TrEMBL record:
The keyword Transport applies. Keywords: Cell membrane, Ion transport, Membrane, Transmembrane, Transmembrane helix, Transport. The chain crosses the membrane at residues 29-51, 71-92, 236-257, 277-297, 309-328. NCBIfam families: zip. It is a multi-pass membrane protein. Its main location: membrane. This is Zinc transporter 7. It is found in: Cell membrane; Membrane. It comes from Aegilops tauschii subsp. strangulata (Goatgrass). GO terms for molecular function: zinc ion transmembrane transporter activity.
Length: 329
């Protein structure tokens, strides 16, 4: 349990601790390659591990043939989970964008009122900077007051160019980090419970090594998304801590339930299979859409050709490395 906890803390903490360091800053070559590797790990987790575990649980001979073995429920449930994640992704993104537009409109109205009030009393040229906090970002709005000697007043509200695109990227980073954590935490609980109820040392030892590797790179992907979202320190620490303790907590709960928990009971198999399928759908969607497509097809891969090749190699290595762990876990 300690090895898994330490791996999770190191994985999620490294991008957060390195936000101020050039070598592991978001956008650096090291960070891009490591995040691509982590995206490959998450993709393989969904396809090779979670979906396979769901099929194994829902095709168990202990379950009645109808309906569980007469219909491909694992793939069907994973598909529904991926589509539901898409809907949630869109709705949450629109919520944050609507909230942002309302804040900008309010700030513009307040700034216009302040300019009108200031124009009646100001006689010297001055520039006031109004700072508004939006989605944990500080956005400066410059109010420029021009006063001629003839007391003619020109007022202009200036907003930095490109701000809309930056805010849109920030909103996406916030949404991706929250949904990715939901998907990772959901399957971490299942993995922890499965490991906790296991009583075979021969099974547990290779599982611990595989899960430590798995936790580190899943944590790195999540930590990178949290760092890109630029959460406040307290929010970032809370999200990172929640991820790090989930699997160890599941292991502890599984150990407590092991005396009376029957992993081969029909109810346990159905619950495990459905949850594994849901987790697979979420992770596959997040890996393909919000991690791989967003970085590789969304214009963010703007570095040198060498850096791009490194990112692709890291992506494939991550997927292959995590897939190879299916031999033991």
């Amino acid at each position: 349990m300690a090895a898994i906890l330490v791996s999770g803390v190191m994985g999620v903490g490294l991008p957060l601790a390195g936000r101020k360091r050039r070598t592991v800053q978001t956008g650096s070559a090291v960070f891009v390659a490591a995040k691509a590797f982590a995206a490959g790990v998450i993709l393989a987790t969904g396809f090779v591990h979670m979906l396979h575990d769901a099929e194994h649980a829902l095709s168990n001979p202990c379950l009645p043939a109808g309906p569980w073995r007469r219909f491909p429920f694992p793939g069907f449930v994973a598909m529904l989970a991926a589509l539901a994640t898409l809907v949630l992704d869109v709705l949450v993104t629109r919520f944050y964008e609507t909230k942002h537009r309302a804040e900008v409109a309010r700030v513009k109205a307040d700034a216009a009122a302040a300019l009108a009030a200031a124009s009646t009393s100001a006689s010297d040229e001055d520039i006031t900077v109004v700072t508004v906090v939006e989605s944990e970002h500080k956005v400066p709005l410059l109010q420029a007051h021009s006063h001629s000697h003839a007391q003619s007043h020109g007022h202009e509200l200036m907003q930095p160019q490109g701000r809309e695109g930056e805010v849109s990227d920030h909103v996406r980073s916030v949404v991706v980090s929250q949904i990715l954590e939901m998907g990772i935490v959901s399957h971490s609980v299942i993995i922890g419970l499965s490991l906790g109820v296991s009583r075979s040392p021969c099974t547990i030892r290779p599982l611990v090594a595989a899960l430590s590797f798995h936790q580190f790179f899943e944590g790195f992907a999540l930590g990178g998304c949290i760092a890109q979202a630029q959460f406040k320190n307290l929010s970032a620490v809370m999200m990172a801590s929640f991820f790090a303790i989930t699997t160890p907590t599941g292991i502890a709960a599984g150990a407590g339930l092991s005396s009376f928990y029957n992993a081969n009971s029909p109810r346990a198999l159905v619950v495990e299979g459905i949850l594994d399928s849901v987790s697979a759908g979420i992770l596959i969607y997040m890996a393909l859409v919000d991690l791989i497509a967003a970085d590789f097809l969304g214009g963010k891969m703007t570095g040198s050709p060498r850096q791009q090749v490194m990112a692709y190699v890291a992506l494939f290595l991550g997927a292959l490395s995590m897939s190879s762990l299916a031999v033991w876990a």
